[in-house]
Amino acid sequence: MVPYMLAFLGVLLLIWIAFVVIGFAIKGLVWLAIIGLILFIATSIVGWIRRGADK
Questions:
Q1: Angle between the 3-25 and 30-53 helix axes, to the nearest 10 degrees?
Q2: What is the pLDDT of residue 23?
Q3: How far, in Å, are 21, 25, 26, 36, 51 from residue 29 at the CA level?
Q4: Tens of pLDDT along the chain (55 residues)?
Q5: Could you tell me how far CA 2 lies from the centroid of its own chain?
Q6: Helix-strand-coil percent breakdown of the chain, rounded to 5?
Q7: CA distances from 36 to 3, 4, 10, 46 (A)
Q8: pLDDT at position 26, please?
Q9: Which of 14, 19, 21, 28 pairs as cysteine with 36 (C-beta 3.0–4.6 A)?
Q10: Residue in 8, 6, 14, 3 with CA at minimum distance from that of residue 39
């Protein structure tokens, strides 16, 4: 996989983690935490699949 693509996926993962933390920290934004978790998992799966496809 191209190095800048891995960096991009890493940045996305950090953003999703921030959404999860903010969502759980502010009780009214639990929906943000749920969306963040879903996007984190989806991004991780995409990165894992693409990394495996390059081998």
A1: 160
A2: 82
A3: 10, 8, 6, 11, 33
A4: 567 777 888 888 899 889 888 888 887 778 888 888 898 899 888 888 887 766 6
A5: 18
A6: 90, 0, 10
A7: 24, 22, 14, 15
A8: 84
A9: 19
A10: 14
